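General statements about sequence and structure are easier to judge against a single worked case. When preparing material for the folding task, we compiled for one chain both its residues and its backbone structure tokens. The amino acid sequence and the backbone structure tokens for this protein are reproduced below:
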Amino acid sequence: MTKADVINEISEKTGIEKIAVQETVESFFKVVKNAMNEGENVYFRGFGSFILKKRAKKVARNISKNTQITIPEHFIPKFKPAKIFMEKIKKSEKVKKLSAK
């Protein structure tokens, strides 16, 4: 499912124009990105959390030049689903059918 699909479905279910839904969805993403850029985690009860995960400093290898590169400590964004959300997916009959294939 793409962002356009999500916008279409929300528009159909709520009766709100697609342009208004698109602006709202874009604003949501902007708020989450800006909050995380400021070092804040974003929590949605029953859905999940957008958190910053710390990656430790490490030494990597550039195979083509046969040299070592030091990658400094940095943070990456990560989504952690809520327990309620994970349980709903585990119990989903459609997902079970996908895993059986």
Observations:
- The mean pLDDT is 93.
- The radius of gyration is 20 Å.
- The CA atoms of residues 7 and 25 lie 8 Å apart.
- The longest strand covers residues 48-55.
